[in-house]
Design goal:
The chain is α/β, with parallel strands linked by helices. The protein has ten helices and ten strands. It has two domains: 134 residues, D-Maltodextrin-Binding Protein, domain 2, CATH 3.40.190.10; 130 residues, 3-Layer(aba) Sandwich (D-Maltodextrin-Binding Protein, domain 2). Strands 1, 2, 3, 4, 5, 6, 7, 8, 9 and 10 form a ten-stranded mixed beta sheet that branches. Helix 1 packs across helix 2 and helix 3 runs parallel beside helix 4. 38% of the residues are buried.
Length: 296
């Protein structure tokens, strides 16, 4: 995400907090009535800025509704849904079979809704001459089979592997689709020396200062001062950079859906909110934040 968009989101979030303080307005008018409905929304850190922007826009036209948005990771959001402590869980991966079983044991019926799409960008320091990699090469790098940049056309130097933490849906996606090459029977793991970082910002910061680092992140979090590597399924190519166009056309190989989960079919304000998210105003926000809308 570009820095101006981050600044806008920070201002929007501040406005939401101030609006909820309940004191008299600056012109002496009485405060507006408290919202009659609160929607608890939690989960994916990849989606948190998008969810905040959606919440702000929806509340502006639906003042009777308050939407509380927090991150923590896809696993955290789904765990809260399973425990019955929230209305909507955001996830950048599909619910796991074991989570589904736990939910059913708790009398919870996770119901899935695709709300946007995302591309996983592979990023390196701008000084790194490597500009394209295959999924096989990425798997070998992150599993530890390849440990020097010279092995993939770069300069002689140790590869410093960066990853999101295990509770992240982005981590799970990269493990399954890249490290394990999409093979459900493959048990390959990240190399033990892989650095697990708690946020997108942490990965970006490390790459900016370390010319030997490699990381991955949702496209909406990639800033212009990072180098994005083109990726291909096969060594013969084609090598593609992540973008709304290449994802929509099915050309970029590391693309995924973004989800919201509810307990059963949503009703009332939760249903209305999700229906709005699928509409043009909310999907325009998807585009503005660097994600991929459901309908290009």
């Amino acid at each position: 995400m570009h820095p101006p968009l981050r600044a806008q989101l920070a201002l929007l979030l501040t406005a939401l907090v101030l609006a909820g303080c309940g004191g008299p307005s600056a012109n002496g008018n009485k405060p507006t009535a408290a919202p009659s409905t609160t929607i608890e929304n939690k989960g994916s850190d990849t989606m948190v800025n998008l969810a905040l922007a959606w919440a702000e826009a929806y509340q502006a036209s639906h003042p009777a509704v308050r939407i509380s948005v927090t991150g923590g990771g896809s696993g955290t959001g789904l765990a809260a849904l399973i425990n019955g402590t929230l209305d909507i869980a955001n996830a950048s991966r599909r619910i796991k079979p074991e989570e589904q079983s736990e939910a059913q044991a708790n009398g919870v019926d996770p119901t899935e809704l695709v709300v946007a799409r995302d591309a996983i960008a592979v990023i390196v320091n701008p000084s790194n001459p490597v500009d394209h990699l295959t999924i096989d090469q990425l798997s070998d790098i992150y599993s530890g089979k390849i440990g020097n940049w010279a092995e993939v056309g770069g300069e002689d130097g140790p590869i410093v592997r960066l990853s999101r933490e295990t509770n992240s849906g982005t981590h799970v996606y990269f493990l399954e689709e890249v490290v394990r090459r999409g093979d459900g029977q493959d048990a390959t793991l990240f190399a033990p020396e892989t650095l697990l970082l708690p946020s997108s910002e942490g990965i970006s910061a490390e790459i900016r200062q370390n010319p030997n680092a490699i990381g991955y992140d949702g496209l909406g979090y990639v800033t212009p001062d990072l180098k994005v590597v083109a990726v291909a399924r096969e060594a013969s190519g084609p090598f593609e950079l992540p973008s709304a166009e290449t994802v929509a056309a099915g050309r970029y190989p590391l693309a995924r859906d973004l989800y919201m989960y509810t307990n059963g079919k949503p009703a009332g304000e939760t249903a209305a909110y999700q229906q709005w998210i699928l509409g043009p105003d909310a999907q325009a926000i998807v585009t503005g934040l660097g994600f991929v809308p459901l309908v290009p």
